[in-house]
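Next comes one such specimen:
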Amino acid sequence: MRGTVSAKLTDFLAQANSNIALAKQNNIQFTPSILRENLNKLSGLMSDSPAVTYIADKTLTLTDRSINVRVYSPAPNTALPVLVHFHGGGHMCGSVELYDPICRHLASIAQCVVISVEYRLAPEYPYPAGIDDCEYALIHYADLLDDVKYLPKVTIIGDSAGGAICTSLSMKSLTDKRINIDQQILIYPSVDYTLTSPSLDSNGTGFLLETTRIKWYFEQYFQSTDANIIKQASPLLGPMSAQLPKTLIFTAGCDPLRDEGIAYAKALTAVGVDVEHHSLDDMIHAYMLLHDLVKDECMKTYLYIAKFMAKV
């Protein structure tokens, strides 16, 4: 069933759809640079960027690479819950800098230490490079907090592709005991790379994120047509166990990824995982990056996250 979008987004989507139609008319092909530039333009809709007492850029150094992170704490001398953040962007776009306003809101509203991870992106670094970076940051997060007080339990959070990374790490935690996750927070997550959910058809055009672009993202990410690899990488199709972490999940009614997010919430619930699911029926994919247009919905999401974090 196709979603019905909020009137708050009508003008924004009219402009976006006009631009998409013009690009198709002129046969402008997707490229990483064009899509990265387009996503970065959404920074202009996140003008509300609260002050946070402690913000520091840090680096995890490995033998073959470095992983940059940004650490936030609203009260560095107070032991607060830890929230490890993986940004969205189709595994190809997005950055710590673009998501800086979101991480500031998370730190200040949820009163937690936020660690935002700058993981490697496709197509330069295809699957599973980005997951490997996020896994390393998660395992070694305490190394980044030598000058910040924190509580020992850890929650992971991600939107879209960041949600895919969260659920992939949660799936891996069932067999890899180095990975400890107490909770996961998923915002319109991507959890099924096989592109079979009904909402990919019903919501696949007209709502900013289009199914053709999702397919292209995944082609760049996997650089493989091996159906087994793609299926095994899909958390929705992976092992389900009550040992998976407690989960807070948000879906958007006008999102092509809506149905796989709902299916993931139901699958976790069926095996006994504690799941809290909120559907914002008139929102689109990436609404958290459109803060100035849908401030009430964004703040509602942050408040749900704050309540969830208060129970960790």
